[in-house]
Structure formats: C-alpha cells, structure tokens
Amino acid sequence: MIAYRLLRVFVHLFVGLWTCAFVFPLTDAAGRQRRIRQWSIKLLVICRVRLELRNPSGAEAAARALIVANHVSWLDIFVINSLQSCRFVAKSDIRDWPLVGWLCEKSGTIFIARGKQRDVRRIFQGLVTSIQAGERVAFFPEGTTAAQGGVLPFHANLFEAALDAKVPVQPYALRYLDADGALHPAADFIGDMTFAQSMIAILKARPMIAELIQLAPIETAGVHRRALAVTTRAAIAGALGQTQSVVASE
Known about the structure:
By secondary structure, the chain is an alpha/beta fold.
C-alpha cells in the first residue's frame, strides 16, 4: 500500500512539473492560481490529509493582507494553497530539493537566504509590489519548522512589507491532528529529517486532519514591525493553546 501511495505522489509531482513547464506560460494569473489550488487539494488527498478550516472569531479574512502562519511541515504550503493559492516566501534551501524545488519556484515561491540582510532587502520591495497588486503573499515568520506543541519566536523583518503596503496581517494557526484530536506525530518535520523521510512517514501513518484556524486580521497602521511580530505570534500561539510570551527577533 505504501508503494502505491508513493507512486501516486510521484505521478502527481510530474503532473505538476508538466503543468508548470507547458501550461503556466500559456495561461493568466487566475488560471495559474486555480491550478495551484487544485494541485494542492489533490496532493492532500493522496497524503490522506483532510483540511478543516476553523474561524473562532467569526471575522472575515482580509481581502488584501500579508498572510502569516506557524510552520510545522512542508505540508503547510499546500494546506494554505488548498484554501487560497499564495506566493510563499521560503528559505533558499528548498530550491535545492530535487524536483520539488523547481516546482515551488515555478509556482511563484520567493526564496530567501535566512540571516542575510542583503537578501531580505533584495526581495522586500518585490513583496510590497506584489501585495499592492493584489497578490496573496504568505510567509512563516519562525524561519524554520517547529515541533508541534510549540511556536518559535517570530522574525520581524518581513512584517515591514505589510506596513509599507498599508495592509493588515492575516494570521493562521496550523496544527495536524489524528482521529482522536491529538497532535499527529507524523506531521513533525524537524532536525535532520529529509523531505523524502517526511513524505514516507506521512504516507505510512494513519490519516491526519490539518486544522487551519483563521484568526482576526491585525491592523498595522502606526505599529512597529517588532510589536506586530509579537502581537501576531501571541494570537497564533494562543489559538494553539500556547501562552508563553517571546520577544521577536529581526
């Protein structure tokens, strides 16, 4: 059974590569976004991940915003994309992943070298321009994946894009659960685990629920990026049952 599921993933991956290479150049932005969303939904189905969207505040999601979420797994990108396709800011290491890195690049991912201020400045204005043009831009301010049950400090640099674009931050809290509502161990993608190891662990495990919690938008007018990062982290951590306060880093 695991071999069959793995084969389905590879076939789906090559369908995505073919679409990026031959269909994307011939279609408009709306067509690309629709195909990215459909591809992400099918990937979750193959991996037996069911999306559940919660909105405890009842607030409408901001139409134009900088989308922010905690980071658990490589699955996070596809969970969010299955709801609404976004341009993600991701660490440059992902570009080197076989096939997947190229797929992410062609689907609009913006790669950044973590810890390099010059690289942050290089892409910053592009983020502002994309947001102002109505594109959905999303990033994971922890800068790396964290084990479920904890939320790392948020890096504040890229929050400046929301300030300059004069849009709110739209936070989402994300966790992966088993059928009993407990945190699903197969979702963790930490330490020296490779993408291939994580994929196999997910395909071998019992089905999981990706719980995406939509939080109220956070206004940015007159707020410093550090304070914005702290406020956003507190909202996401609170939704996940974490209460420890942490200072934001650059």
